[in-house]
């Protein structure tokens, strides 16, 4: 998905169709996947995106929208050709700079889906690199319930499980595999942790992966 967003044409934020080709060779190079397996992984990922539905609320009405309109699997050419639904494209154009400015391959080694989702949240809150001397960093506040929802945490996870299996794991993996220092400061209302103050910054102390 990040690869598709990074290749959206920024000057075409209307409903014109954008046919985006992703090649197995590029996928292999970016993510360190053996070339003979790259097309299979790429086509499987594209197939999964074809089945994704985005749910929003417009004028108080729940609305569902398909993410992609079409995907052509060109195995002999070693590529897939994807068209993101034109109604979704204008909402993704603003994310293009963020996804194209931070190496996508850094996230591919995450072992947890929670780390991947947290990484996506951080990307969306990252400050313009022109204002941070080129460093990936940012900060924001978020309600606990909203964070759990965005990460896809099951309701059955109590606070202890949420903290250890989700927050601590994501924090450690972001540092070890993406060179990102993440700090989560819990905020309490009465005795309940109802929100977090989040700060993150790319570290100078580790060699980039």
Folded structure, characterized:
The chain has seven helices and eight strands, in the order αβααββββααβααββ. α2 crosses α3. The two termini are about 20 Å apart. With about 210 residues, the protein is of the alpha+beta class.
Short description:
This protein is of the alpha+beta class.
Based on secondary structure, the structural category is: alpha+beta
CATH architecture of the largest domain: Orthogonal Bundle
Strand order of the largest sheet: 1-5-4
Report helical residue fraction: 25-40%
At the fold tier of CATH, the topology name of the largest domain is: Arc Repressor Mutant, subunit A
> What does the main sheet amount to?
3 strands, antiparallel
Number of distinct helices: 7
- Overall tally of domains: 2
Give the helix/strand layout:
Layout: H1 2-6, E1 19-23, H2 24-31, H3 35-50, E2 53-58, E3 61-66, E4 68-74, E5 79-84, H4 89-101, H5 113-125, E6 137-143, H6 144-151, H7 159-178, E7 180-189, E8 192-202
Antiparallel strand pairs: 1-5, 2-3, 4-5, 6-8, 7-8
Helix pairs in contact: 2-3, 5-7
Keywords:
single chain; about 210 residues; alpha+beta; Arc Repressor Mutant, subunit A; 2 domains; three-stranded antiparallel beta sheet; 8 strands; about 30% strand
């Amino acid at each position: 998905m990040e690869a598709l967003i990074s290749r959206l044409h920024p000057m075409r934020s209307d409903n014109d169709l954008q046919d985006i080709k992703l090649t197995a060779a590029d996928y292999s190079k970016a993510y360190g996947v053996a070339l003979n397996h790259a097309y299979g992984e790429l086509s499987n990922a594209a197939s999964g995106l074809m089945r994704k539905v985005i749910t929003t609320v417009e004028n108080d009405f729940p609305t569902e929208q398909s993410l992609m309109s079409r995907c052509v699997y060109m195995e002999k050419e070693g590529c897939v050709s994807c068209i993101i639904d034109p109604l979704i494209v204008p909402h993704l154009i603003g994310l293009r700079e963020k996804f194209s400015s931070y190496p996508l391959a850094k996230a591919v080694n995450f072992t947890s889906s929670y780390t991947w989702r947290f990484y996506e949240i951080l990307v969306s809150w990252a400050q313009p690199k022109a204002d941070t001397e080129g460093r990936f960093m940012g900060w924001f506040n978020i309600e606990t319930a909203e964070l759990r929802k965005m990460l896809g945490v099951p309701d059955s996870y109590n606070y202890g499980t949420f903290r250890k299996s989700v927050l601590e794991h994501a924090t450690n993996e972001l540092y070890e595999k993406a060179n990102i220092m993440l700090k989560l400061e819990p905020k309490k209302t009465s005795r309940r942790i109802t929100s977090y103050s989040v700060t993150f910054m790319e570290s100078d102390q580790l060699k980039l992966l």
